[in-house]
Amino acid sequence: MTPEALRHLIVVDPTLARIIRAVGPCTIRPQRRSPFEALVRAVAHQQLNGKAADAITRRFLELFPGRRFPTPAEVEQMAEDRIRSAGFSGSKVRAILDIASKAREGVVPERRVLARLDDEAIIDRLVQCRGVGRWTVEMFLMFTLARPDVLPADDFGVRNGFQLIHELPEMPRSWELLEFGERWRPYRTTASWYLWRAVDLVRDGKLPR
To answer: Is-above-0.70 flag for pTM?
Structure first.
């Protein structure tokens, strides 16, 4: 993220500024994936640890030899039981097939189309896919499209980080976090990243006071 984002956050939020100084520069590195691939990978990782999700995704890709990632049409043509053999649950198979169908129909468009839409319009569009909720699209906006002003207010880690740095007796409610986060605009993605890092600092006993 840009130096301007750090300068802005340090000025508007002295509490978050301590975390920024302790962690150092923001190291978000967006991944150049198609919206279709990003959503399929997101579904694969839902409710699983990273190692298990990576193994399932690898077996899924092995169903399409010679391809870095299959096209929506190739996924739709694959038998459901073969997709499930990679380790997906039935609900995830149905979600992946629905994402493929909606990508072919244009509901899940190419990046160049999404580039013309604002964040809320992208959320409204992509949550039409089975198994894709607001949080999943917010992660897509942050880590695939590199949108700078996303605040996933329902994210456990973001809320937990906010609670920890402000020494609150309980986590903030989503609306409270959104209200407070207005001061972080237009760099709420960077602020969210530092709230995640605050949880890491607490775990390692390095949270600044």
So the answer is: yes
